[in-house]
Amino acid sequence: MATKFEGKVKAIPEMPPKEIEEMRNTMEFVSRKVIAENIERMKITWPNRPKTMQYFDEISNFFGQRVEEIRAQKEAGKKIIGYSCMFAPIELILAADAIPVRIDSGWYDTAKLGDTIVPVEVCPVIRSNIGTQMVNLSPYLELSDAIIIPLTCDGRTKLSEILRDDKTVWTMCPPRIKDSLQSRKLWVEEVKAVKEKIEDLTGTEITGKTLRSAIEITQRASKAFRRLQEIRKGNPVIMGRDSMLVNQTSTWDDIKRWTQKTEELCDELENRIEQKNWACSPDTPRVMVTGTPMIWPDNWKIPNLIEESSPHGVIVVDELCSGDRLLYDPVGVDEWTMSDMMDALAERYILASTCPCFTSEHGNEDRINWLLDRVTEYRVDGVIYYVIRGCILYAMEYARIKRLLDSMDVPVYYLDTEYTREDVGQMKTRVEAFLEMLETRVALREVK
Amino acid sequence: MVTCSRRRITMTEIIAEILRATIIAGIILAGILAILIWIKDQTKKISYLRVFIQIAAVPVIFLGLIIGPFGLPQFPPVGNAPRDAVVGTNIFGAPFPDGLSVPVLACYYPSGRTVTCPIWQIQGYIFPFWNTGLGFGWGVFYTTTGLERLAIVFGLVIGMSIVLGRFFCGWVCPFGLYMDLIIRLRKTFKKRYWKLSERVNIGLRQLRYVIIAAFLILSFVFGTQAIIGLQLVPGTERGEYVYSYFSAPFCQICPVKPLSVLVESALGLMDFTFVFSNTKGLLYEAGYYVTSLNVAVLVLVTIGAFAFRRFWCRICPLGGLISIFNRFPPFKWVSGVRLNKIEEKCTKCGICKRVCPPQVTEVYEEKGGDVTSPGCILCFRCVEMCPYENCLEIRVAGKPIYKSRSWLKGLK
Amino acid sequence: MIAAGIDIGTQSAKVAILKGGEVLSRSLALCGFNPKEAAEKAFKEALRKARLSFDNVEHITATGAGAAKATNSDSTISMVGADAQAGAYFFPSARTVIDVGAEEARAVSCDENGNMLDFVLNSRCAAGAGTFIEAMARALEVELEELGPLSLKAEKASPINASCVIFSESDVVSLIHRQEPKPEIARAIYDAMADRISSMVHRLGIKPHVVLVGGVAKDVGFVTSLKRKLHTELLIPEGPVFAGSVGAALTAGKRIG
Question: What ipTM did this prediction achieve?
Fold first, then answer.
């Protein structure tokens, strides 16, 4: 006999509030420890760390100052719009006087929790997000009035459905082929649709003026961002992890303030260049990391290993959507009319992106070009190709990229890992062996 | 230099003239330097420079020798037609009686003819001025044959096309300036621009060559009497209908003619009443230099230019002519000004394609190397707006003279 | 110039002492529950054999999974780095070194000076290392030392699942119940392992000559299967289990001063 369901069927089962509270408290405790520990480790590796970095340390604390600010602004009536990935148009959120904040999860413990809902083969970032939602670990996720999720991969497509049970989720459909005529039309329509949703939620109309000032804000952020990346081209005056932290804080912080602080940091770093005050020896092997995102705080595992093992390397550039790809491409507006601004916005988010979730009418050439360019510009000694287990997109690109880097005589190492602390030992062996190899190559090169 | 002065020129006047020329050159140079130094916004610097040079080019083209050195016209008026008082060239002697052929739309008809539209010259020297030997043209006296004159015109056009290509279109052509001013007018009203679909755009680009072929063939058909001794079309004798009103067939529909005529009339260099003294033609109203077809095309092109940026440039046969001698082999291999792309720096962000006024796509589609397209007017907008260092560059004779740089650095 | 290398593996700790770049003495001790003690024991034994005291040793380099436990060492080096050094030391023409230990298998490309140029490690599964053979010997109820010679008697191999130690073990048991001849099962076991090692080495690219080291290199069954899969001769030094410690000692020698 068929029964009628009362209410909706959710993916996440109801849990007793006490249990949620307990788990959350434990995980928050661990998370605070990990955040403090990671920052401590960065300080140990770089004893001469500039004072300006303290600001970024504070913002990187998920349970600290920034959350309080956002909470206060929410109480004052502002809307918080969370987003996943990096294809959500932040400028529209800023133009509507709302607060954008990235909600991708970097916690290992919640990934285990997510295992109870979805299989282990699913991307760890997605599982971690699910776990975070289950125990309300992320204050940003909790405070979001709406979440924009671009459906860039299968994991995110289904994650949007799971989160939809409890939160307002707006999905955007980025086309898999990013540059055909039809795709560009589709994406512009998607951006327009999201614009209307934002306007409805916030009750503020996005006018040409407000959009223009929002775009100018992000352009200035791009300028500061690029300035920092330029500095990393020379001898290492900033350690890789610190730079990655600065980059990532831009996704949670007030973007105007972040811009200002980054400019200050760059001023100080440029002073240090003149004084030749290097963060580590200039012949430290220069490492580039490419692959799936490394999200703070737990997923600092590999950067920690790279910069702390003996011999150690320095991460001079990365091709990560949690790092050097975030603000690198500016919005290029030709005429400041609404239609041109929307076109420019739409195109900036997907055409310049090197994420392998896209292919183009010419294959994935642009990612190849980008890697080639980065390797030459930053004089990279070796590349770590980092793939989170389950990410087919990055894993499948490896073959081509390995052959490219082999032809350039740049060693590349494929690191396949998970959201777990248990394989640190094995990762360490591999990273150390790779760095030893790089060090030998650097030494041999200098002899020549 | 053949001049026809009514009195002797004194030493003081020579010195004054040299001074005047130096001052004018100085002002132009100062303007260029001022723009290069003071404008910090790197997304606008080259655009401003270009507008300045376009505006500076106008007096040179149109008024250059009407005013003439020493304030004297270069030729006494030949007849009583209003235009005849404005005739002013032949500075280079017999080979250039109608003016120097520079591949810009500096209309032949009313101007002071320092610089002349080669489209008229090509048509005109086939029909009606093929005369083998001496003879009168419109207000000038030819001492060379039509074939010789054609060779000179083609030689000049081909030479300039190879060296500078459609740089003329982007930086010198006065009709280009007209369309750029329309763009600026539209921007002040904050109206958006429209885009033609890529298929239509490419179709228009190919239409250019059809137009060139059409007017060449028509001119030839009209001129068979003089060329091969056989009259195919009635009315082509001197003074007859086709001779008077249908020679240079393209010029009867060209939108630049009425624009130049109207501008010159407004400046008082031409008697306005003559412009509109009507003669009814076969298919159109013909006035003195201006036909109803001209005006209709001008109106259409103006409206089109409000919607589609640089609308005429996509269809301009003179642009097509330059493209033939600049963008197709063997000329392509020796062209002087090129747009070049460094493949590894390009992230395919699409900004170059979006900001391009004539909607050229080759700069985006081509992988690397020489990406100058037959539709490109070398306005440098793509290079100006490209946010990646050294990705796009303008090369003159192989040397990069202007590279894309991160315009973010110029932001306040 | 006296240098020492300590290799603390998962099963045993090995020590080698070199003088002037030549091996003076070697010693091995089983780790059991206390690798640190085993290392110290092996070290004392090696010193005794070389008739030296602790103070004579100028530099000690540690390697292996438990390298951090050798608290008296002056520096460390990765296993693959040590393998490259050892390979070039034992055979100057060596350009590829394969090291199959108890729980990990590695392959390294090196140059004539023993510098490591590239490396590959097995994907965290013991079905391509010594433990696999031990488990299979247990399943076949044969002594570990007898498994190799037994497999040489086979003319062909029975099919077994080579993807996981656990599955292989149950496959072996069912093959025994079906009365499959033991030599053929033994050969299948070695073939499966050689297959895994071979695909790992192919990811690196094989450059002659190829050296095989590690405890498993003494097993004739494995060596025969691997030679067959790789289609190449394998150079095996005397005392292959000491390759890691010798390599570490060579590194220590270079770091003196």
Answer: 0.86
